[in-house]
Write a structure and sequence with these properties.
107 residues, mainly alpha, rod-shaped
């Protein structure tokens, strides 16, 4: 009977250890599941942020490209206008010089 009592005591002790290990394992599983969900949410948040950032970069790039195109066009127009005026001034100066030469030659 003493051996049976010792076996029962060992079984109870072993059963208690297994129950403790089972609870510990369940707690780890719950903790892991929480972390997994949290990390999944963080990943989704990062994905959303990246998409938003891409949209903002695309919008800003389009705005910058539009402004640059406008500035380049404006600069071309201004340059052509200045060259046109300069060309007219040179032609006028050339005519004036020819007229002065012609007048000097006649005098």
């Amino acid at each position: 009977q003493e051996a049976v009592a010792q076996l029962e005591l060992l079984l109870q002790k072993h059963g208690a250890q297994m129950a403790e290990q089972s609870q510990s394992s369940e707690a780890r599983d719950v903790s892991f599941e929480r972390r997994f969900k949290s990390q999944g949410q963080q990943f989704e948040d990062i994905e959303r942020s990246m998409s938003q950032l891409r949209r903002e970069v695309a919008e800003r790039t389009d705005a910058i490209e539009s402004r640059l195109t406008s500035e380049v066009s404006s600069c071309k127009d201004e340059l052509q206008e200045r060259l046109g005026k300069s060309g007219r001034q040179e032609v006028a100066a050339s005519w004036e010089a020819k007229e002065a030469q012609a007048a000097a030659a006649q005098a």
